[in-house]
Amino acid sequence: MTRRGWVLFVALGVIWGIPYLLIRVTVREMSPALLVLVRTGGGALLLAPFVARRRMLAPVLRRWRPLLVYSFVETGVPWLLLFQAERRLSSSLAGLLVAAVPIVGAVLAQLTGTDRLDRRRVAGLVLGMCGVAALVGLDVGRSSALSALSLAAVAVGYALGPWIVGRYLSDLPALSVVACSLAICAAVYAPVAVFELPSRPLSGSVIWSLVCLTVLCTAIAFVCFYALIAEIGALRSTVITYVNPAVAVVLGVAVLGEPFGLGTAVGFVLILSGSFLATRPLRAASPSAAQHEPGAARVEHELPAVGEP
Question: How many Cβ atoms from other residues are within 10 Å of residue 1's Cβ?
């Protein structure tokens, strides 16, 4: 990997590891629906110049049906569920549960026939599920069980989104797809969120968290993400999935003083190990084979299932 690739990889690993901390701070004073509106609307506005430069808005909008579905499963529903869950769950726990996205992606690939499971991948799925069970069974109370369950829906949505893009939108500029998706979500949430404005001024910590979520963790993160894909390829960029949860756990414990219990420790090891095994390629393709393999060139433009928070 080049120096630029390493810089992008490390930067994005941190950028997509801190949203769980920022969300936990923000939902103390803002409703989840309002937070979705601000983050999606602000992100769409910040990405608009990149979309305008490519002049690819019309082709994206012509695919409005898969675009609407992608917006629904990747951002619209998962972000609302994630924001609601973090009102009850710690940021570190939320980050670890969402880290199961590659495991869901492996199951989806098997069900859709885009990939297959061997013994190693099945072992990874089992390990990952045991890790989720450890988290839920040891670190989640009864009152928070529903919130933990809702994060399973978040993981499913994060895995479905890249699959939809790869199947129906892969020939379009990814940033244009993301910007349009964010704008759609903002338009949907605006009529609801306008009735959920805070009754008193937001604290400084919430304002800064909101700015970082919108500017750094949404707009800048997506620009870095596709620069990383262009530098090292879509498949290799999925390794960032194993960095984000670690950052989320460290920040949650160090900054917010969240507990690091037995369930967190066991779940951390099992989920990341399971994700690694479940998403490893079945065989290493040679460069010459990759050049002649059908769809090999296209995969670089697909969105890998990284589960951006």
Answer: 12
